[in-house]
């Protein structure tokens, strides 16, 4: 079948409790979304998969969880106060606000007018004030972080000394970021509050280009390991004029988020960016970086974030390779890629969400074939309880078996376990596979091990 568009996913997500429009009972809040019972599980599973891959499966990466609100000076020296802006234009006809860099043909996508204002920079950082001070007290002004990365750079020396690391090593962080986007939209693709999974990998200058390429390949593979088809992923080399002020090279991994558009109409958009940030960040936050004229560039920092190599007796600022992905865009791509439809023998079309088992919100649904038979219900409930510590299982008896299967297929549950009359005799249950609809009889005592084995493959 052809790929689903985002609207299909929005409707499934709302119908089944993955994602709801936020503040809906008060008329909503533009482009804000709440993750429901299944959505929160899916997000957590994406984050766990990323953390396992980054931190547990390697031996050169540490984790961190830094504050959302940081000292304002962090954003001064990172360059965000001056440059973290999008070019904003207004349509003179319909007054819509637009991002100049996202307009393909210089026309307002709302009314088609070409009468647009000149672009002007619009800073994307949300402002707030700390403490019981006057609203306009400039000393109380702080920002909600627009990226998690800076929290890692300012902790570079802390992590280095406490973990006794040597280059190369990385620091990974998952957390919320906030950007006052000019044109949020497309469901959870672009929102003002979102979650990032970022890792800053510190290397010797000179090794940066090779390591950057290794991370590009590794990140692409990670998305395919999550079950996303390689046909819907591609690499995009950012041209020089698109590069951020700190970047030597950036390659994005793009996903085909907009399959309904024609090829030349931006079918693809960013899922993850992998940047070579050079030594910009550690240098800019250091107390005594000197430029060519010997001028002191940062009088506010109390720390020098350079690195001393014991073996070569050299001191330098490490280069940084940064794979930065969005939790929400990963969730969206995973949902889009998993969506499929299948017609059963009665000619009814069923939605099947072929999520990778590690991402599925529920791993097994325990279903009694007859809910009016207390012994069957009791056995099914006790099976659910016994599985629960090892894997996320649910019990459901609120419909006929066909309906219960369809419900689980639609939310991506890899296995349904049916308890029937025969189970009371032979202590066995039927395990049904979501993707093949094949059924197999398994002894109750072997069920947990059997399911865990199936989930691993
Ligand atoms: P874009 O060009 O789409 O605005 P970006 O290049 O500014 O994105 P980065 O700063 O590289 O994004 O952030 C890393 C990742 O964070 C992105 O690849 C994306 O997955 C996620 N992300 C960034 N902005 C948003 C947003 N407003 N809503 C949801 N996810 C976002």
State the strand order across the main sheet: 3-9-10-16-13-12-11
The CATH class of the largest domain turns out to be Alpha Beta
How many domains comprise the coordinates?
A: 3
Radius of gyration: 26 Å
The span between the termini is 25 Å
Q: Briefly note the structural class of the backbone.
A: alpha+beta
CATH topology of the largest domain: BirA Bifunctional Protein, domain 2
**Count of beta strands:** 23
Spell out the CATH superfamily of the largest domain: Bira Bifunctional Protein, Domain 2
Oligomer: single chain
**Alpha plus pi helix count:** 13
**Chemical compounds bound to the protein:** adenosine-5'-triphosphate
The CATH architecture of the largest domain can be given as 2-Layer Sandwich
Q: How many strands, what sense, and barrel or not for the largest sheet? A: 7 strands, mixed
Low-confidence stretches: none
Mean pLDDT: 94
Hey, roughly how much beta strand do the residues contain? 25-35%
| Shape designation | globular
Can you describe this structure?
- This protein is of the alpha+beta class.
- The chain has three domains: 6-82 and 130-335, 2-Layer Sandwich (BirA Bifunctional Protein, domain 2); 85-123, no CATH class; 362-456, 3-Layer(aba) Sandwich (Rossmann fold).
- The chain contains 13 helices and 23 strands.
- The chain has helices at residues 6-16, 37-56, 72-77, 80-83, 149-153, 156-163, 208-225, 280-284, 327-338, 374-387, 401-411, 421-426, 447-456; strands spanning 19-21, 33-35, 61-64, 85-90, 97-99, 120-123, 127-129, 141-143, 169-178, 193-203, 233-237, 249-255, 269-278, 307-309, 314-316, 319-326, 339-343, 349-353, 364-368, 393-395, 415-419, 428-433, 439-443.
- Strands 3-9-10-16-13-12-11 form a seven-stranded mixed sheet, sandwiched between helices.
- β19, α10 (374-387) and β20 (393-395) form a beta-alpha-beta unit.
- The longest helix has 20 residues, at 37-56.
- The radius of gyration is 26 Å and the shape is globular.
- The mean pLDDT is 94.
């Amino acid at each position: 079948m052809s790929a689903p568009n985002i609207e299909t996913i929005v409707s499934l997500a709302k119908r089944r409790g993955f994602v709801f429009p936020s503040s809906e009972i008060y008329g909503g809040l533009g482009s804000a979304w709440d993750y429901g019972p299944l959505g929160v599980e899916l997000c957590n599973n994406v984050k766990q998969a990323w953390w396992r891959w980054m931190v547990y499966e390697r031996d050169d990466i540490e984790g961190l969880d830094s504050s959302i609100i940081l000292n304002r000076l962090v954003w001064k020296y990172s360059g965000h106060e001056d440059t973290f802006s999008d070019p904003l234009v207004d349509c003179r006809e319909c007054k819509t606000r637009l991002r100049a860099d996202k307009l393909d043909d210089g026309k307002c996508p709302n009314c088609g007018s070409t009468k647009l204002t000149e672009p002007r920079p619009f800073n994307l950082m949300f402002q707030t004030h700390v403490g019981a001070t006057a609203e306009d007290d400039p000393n109380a002004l702080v920002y909600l972080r627009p990226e998690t990365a800076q929290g890692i750079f300012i902790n570079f020396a802390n992590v280095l000394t406490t973990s006794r690391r040597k280059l190369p090593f990385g620091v990974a962080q998952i957390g919320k970021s906030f950007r006052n986007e000019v044109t949020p939209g497309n469901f959870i693709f672009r929102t003002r509050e979102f979650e990032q999974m970022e890792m800053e990998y510190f290397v010797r200058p000179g090794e940066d280009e090779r390591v950057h390429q290794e991370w590009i390949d590794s990140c692409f593979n990670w998305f395919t390991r999550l079950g996303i088809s390689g046909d819907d992923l591609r690499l995009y080399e950012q041209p020089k004029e698109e590069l951020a002020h700190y970047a030597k090279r950036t390659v994005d991994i793009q996903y085909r988020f907009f399959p309904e558009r024609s090829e030349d109409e931006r079918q693809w958009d960013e899922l993850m960016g992998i940047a070579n940030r050079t030594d910009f960040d550690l240098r800019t936050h250091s107390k005594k970086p000197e430029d060519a004229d010997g001028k002191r560039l940062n009088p506010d920092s109390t720390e020098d974030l350079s690195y001393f190599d014991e073996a070569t007796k050299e001191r330098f600022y490490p280069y940084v390779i940064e794979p930065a992905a969005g939790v929400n865009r990963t969730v969206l791509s995973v949902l889009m890629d998993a969506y499929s439809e299948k017609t059963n023998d009665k000619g009814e079309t069923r939605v099947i969400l072929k999520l990778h088992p590690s991402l599925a919100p529920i791993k097994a649904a325990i279903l009694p074939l007859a809910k009016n038979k207390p012994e069957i219900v009791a056995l099914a409930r006790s099976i659910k309880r016994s599985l629960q510590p090892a894997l996320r299982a649910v019990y459901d008896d609120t419909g006929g078996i066909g309906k219960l299967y369809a419900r689980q297929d639609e939310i991506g549950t890899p296995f349904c376990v049916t308890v029937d009359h025969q189970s009371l005799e032979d202590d066995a249950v039927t395990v049904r596979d979501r993707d093949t609809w094949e059924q197999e009889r398994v002894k109750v005592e072997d069920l947990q091990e059997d399911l865990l084995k199936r989930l691993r493959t």
